[in-house]
Amino acid sequence: PGEVSRVKDLLYPSMAVLHKLLSQLFSWSGISFLLQLMGTALLAVVGVWTLRLLVRHAWYTHRLSCFNKPPTHSWLIGHLGQMQSTEEGLQQVDELVQTYKHSCSWFFGPFYHMVRVFHPDYVKPLLMASANITMKDEFVYGHLRPWLGRSLLISNGEEWSRKRRLLTPAFHFDILKNYIVTFNSSTNTMHNKWHRLVAGGTTNIEMFDHVTLMTLDSLLKCAFSYQSNCQESTSQYVSAIMELSDLLIDRRFRILHQWDWIYWKTEQGKRFKQALSVVHRFTRDVVQMRRALIDQQRETETLTSMTTAQQKKKDFVDLILLSKDEDGQGLTDEEIQAEANTFMFAGHDTTASAICWTLYNLARHPHYQEKCRQEVMELMQGRDGHEIEWEDLSNLPFTTMCIKESLRLHSPVQAVTRKYTQDVALPGDLTVPQGVICLVSLYGTHHNPEVWTNPHEFDPLRFEPTNTQSRSSHGFIPFSSGPRNCIGQKFAMAELRVVVALTLLRFRLTPGVNPEAGSGSGKVRRLPQLVLRAEGGLWLQLEDLNESSFGNK
Ligand code: HEM
């Protein structure tokens, strides 16, 4: 009882103080005091935040004053809203290139400053800068993170460099050789569909629908050895990938959807999450299954037979599962899933866009189309059937020139963005300050009249070896360049050559008509989204040059 009364003695005074304080707070004067306190705190936070923004703004305005700045709508919002993902947006880039020749500064008021670069001499120091100081910005790449995790495309620094070392062997020529059979068979499936459509009287065909399914089909076989049959019937995984790509584009144009906490509550955010769960479940299951298989083989097989088993493995997931760094460490299952998702994301739309625009350019230039066809026919002379082999790829020089010219004129990727942790010096005493977003315009560089005469004309002869020697190394950069260039470029170039060669062997192409646009001018309006597309699709007329069907059905 003595202890209890001591505790009571101690507690009662403090309880009394607490009671007084609470009653004061909950009295009218207390509430108003509390509100005043909160209001002052809020004002202080907003004040500090605004001051920080103003100082940052003044700092970047000063540092970027060496760059030309196109006129803005207002001092507050700057160029916000002036960059459009439309045909007009691309024409605006042409105007910037005409006017400013190499670079200009840009201001997405009230927060973001940007440097836009579109001349090879200015692009080069930025793309060739060490990967240690190069960063992918969350502002631009952040929306990809829920899908791609911390993968090669969006990671930075040491994490990126380790992943790049581990993944590079998967794109070695010796590995890519094995995929040629897949490129042939996926193309055959697409051509058999075209063959049936033409036989049934449908000759006007939208290319992106068909070619995107074909590139997804072939990537699924190369990445996961998965026979999705997605060109012939609906695949839940493929539909989910397409949904994710569409939703990413949609999100770009909705200001409120930029904040995750708002986005995930919207109808689009919920659809994104749903599609994400389909895609992630698929990749997780494949990786876990393969890991189990490899572990099982390790246990049961001798070292020699293991080597043979390893050699037999051909798909990306197997190769990545087996790759180890200098310390004998490989990637975790989560990391492998992220990379597999990235290959699917980065590889299907880009290659589809490149194929569609190449076919479109050849349709518009029948003499070049015929020259390519002759080249392919000579190559295939005396052979049974149509099968492009690895060794054939280097024997298609003119077709390759047409593909490259198409990649210049209609680059699938319009621009890449970077940030640097140090200042980067450009020619003419210009400096890109650390932390500022740099938009390297692949489109602008490829259409810069200082580099290319008549840049809007399709002229494959630009890529004749004698003509390429005198050109700047950074005038042609569809796969970007430097340490963060495209890891899949040889894969893509091989697939492009197989698809274009087989298509020309089997079909004659002429410009088609978008049925919804009616019989208007037929002028194609470019649509720069995640990759370059065409408004209302890209329509071509097909004439079947062969009676029978092709290869696998
Ligand atoms: C014609 C087809 C393709 C084009 C035009 C293309 C273009 C590009 C470009 C411009 C970049 C740099 C992106 C940036 O810096 O933000 C890039 C990066 C990348 N690409 Fe491709 N790509 C193509 C096909 C592929 C394929 C088939 C794959 C995989 C199978 C692939 C995988 C990647 C990856 C993983 C990166 C990130 C590399 C890194 O940061 O280390 N790409 N691609």
From TrEMBL:
<dbReference type="GO" id="GO:0005506">
    <property type="term" value="F:iron ion binding"/>
</dbReference>
<keyword id="KW-0560">Oxidoreductase</keyword>
<dbReference type="InterPro" id="IPR001128">
    <property type="entry name" value="Cyt_P450"/>
</dbReference>
<keyword id="KW-0349">Heme</keyword>
<dbReference type="GO" id="GO:0020037">
    <property type="term" value="F:heme binding"/>
</dbReference>
<keyword id="KW-1133">Transmembrane helix</keyword>
<dbReference type="InterPro" id="IPR036396">
    <property type="entry name" value="Cyt_P450_sf"/>
</dbReference>
<keyword id="KW-0479">Metal-binding</keyword>
<dbReference type="InterPro" id="IPR017972">
    <property type="entry name" value="Cyt_P450_CS"/>
</dbReference>
<keyword id="KW-0408">Iron</keyword>
<feature type="transmembrane region" description="Helical">
    <location>
        <begin position="33"/>
        <end position="55"/>
    </location>
</feature>
<protein>
    <recommendedName>
        <fullName>aromatase</fullName>
        <ecNumber>1.14.14.14</ecNumber>
    </recommendedName>
</protein>
<dbReference type="InterPro" id="IPR002401">
    <property type="entry name" value="Cyt_P450_E_grp-I"/>
</dbReference>
<comment type="function">
    <text>Catalyzes the formation of aromatic C18 estrogens from C19 androgens.</text>
</comment>
<keyword id="KW-0812">Transmembrane</keyword>
<keyword id="KW-0256">Endoplasmic reticulum</keyword>
<keyword id="KW-0472">Membrane</keyword>
<dbReference type="InterPro" id="IPR050196">
    <property type="entry name" value="Cytochrome_P450_Monoox"/>
</dbReference>
<dbReference type="GO" id="GO:0005789">
    <property type="term" value="C:endoplasmic reticulum membrane"/>
</dbReference>
<feature type="binding site" description="axial binding residue">
    <location>
        <position position="486"/>
    </location>
    <ligand>
        <name>heme</name>
    </ligand>
</feature>
<comment type="similarity">
    <text>Belongs to the cytochrome P450 family.</text>
</comment>
<dbReference type="GO" id="GO:0070330">
    <property type="term" value="F:aromatase activity"/>
</dbReference>
<dbReference type="Pfam" id="PF00067">
    <property type="entry name" value="p450"/>
</dbReference>
<keyword id="KW-0503">Monooxygenase</keyword>
